[in-house]
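## Example pair
The file below holds two records. Each record gives the amino-acid sequence first, followed by its structure token line.
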Amino acid sequence: MSRNIRRQAGFTLLELLVVVAILAAIAGTATIALQDTDARASAAAHVAMMDEMNKAVRTYRVLNRNVYPNDYDALLQKADLATAAAANDFAGNGDPELTGFGILGFEDGLATITLTDDAAAGLNDIGITSLRYIQNDLDGDGGDTPLTCAAADLNDMINSRGNAVVAGNIFLSPAANGCGASVALFDEATETSTGQRVAVWTGGYERVLGGQGAEFDVTDPVTDGSTFTAGVEGAPVLMAVGMGPGSTLFNGGELGGLSSVPVYRHVAVDQYNRFIALFDIGAIGAGGAGYTANDQVALVAIVDGAGDTKEEELGEWDGTRNTI
């Protein structure tokens, strides 16, 4: 009798194999059900951040009597901060079009133009008096490995464990583990532009303006680095700036300033991971060439660090669009 009881208390090899097979099937089903959960959760957070950033900028403007936050990231680098027009892409190849991945994380959708006197004055009037540029030849003490901000070294420097540089802070000064500096856009003494180049959105108007922008997508805007050479007459000129930690929007001492800087997480560690604000600063001129400044600058949209709109990021959240 006792031998029979002991025999019944154990499991046969076949029974164990069946249990293992069942557990494996359950694990496989759970894996399928939970795939991309982290990416979708990030996408949901990004959507909320884009809404909050939009509200924060507008609230800041109201609290500060029609003055926008200042010192955004220019998304451009310069060989010399004293040279007005020398603003290039992150590949450092002198191409005025931002077509290289560089540290930005999106392949196209931006170009550059030079601020005219009227455009710089319009920005100055609403409080955007300066932007932060990366200076190629700016070196500093970054820890065990000195900062070398030459264009060819940016990604290597960001990836290095010998300094405290991260992509999202690259526009801060060397003292703050960056390669950037604040550059004035308007000379109030002479009431003229300082001739700086700024990044402008060329990634499609309907994507950021809805139906209102559809009519402008007939011809993609093209620049020669300084001004528009092709486009739809009257189409808005949307200046693109990064919402990095150097902006007064994230100065807790400012009225309406936020205490933390949102991070966009669908890029590599050596790519710029902040959100992008688009400001309507003017309109493309007659025949699709040149541009004229607006009387009033306005914030029109927030896009993420990959150049995606809120609706596109929502598609990543609900699974109708592949996550990045």
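Second record, same layout:
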Amino acid sequence: MEAKQNAVEDNKRSVPRRHLIYYLRVFDVETNSLLGNLVDISTKGMMIVSDQQVESGKKYKLKMVLPDTVDGRKEVEFDAESRWCQKDTNQDFFDSGFELMDPQAEFLDAVDRLVEDYLFKE
């Protein structure tokens, strides 16, 4: 019973993640390659689905291509650290969790706009 309680507590998030109806492409700036597609996001972190395994504990400089122009920009760059990676329910893909590292105000504004415009209505 105690192990189950700990598992439930581990799954609680301090900031709820929002699921988007539009998968946004996320690129590794260093290699200029597609890392994956954004599945959900919060002001603290995000989950990406990709066709490749992502190394846990690695810091990335990432770029997200926006579906619409936000404040005259079509993309935003940000730093994130990969925290975990596991097989997706579709075994051809991987789900990876990232913690945002000191996100800039312009990035947080873009996230707010994305959530407002492209939030999956539950």
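Notes on the second record: The chain is about 20% helix and 50% strand. The chain has one domain: 2-118.
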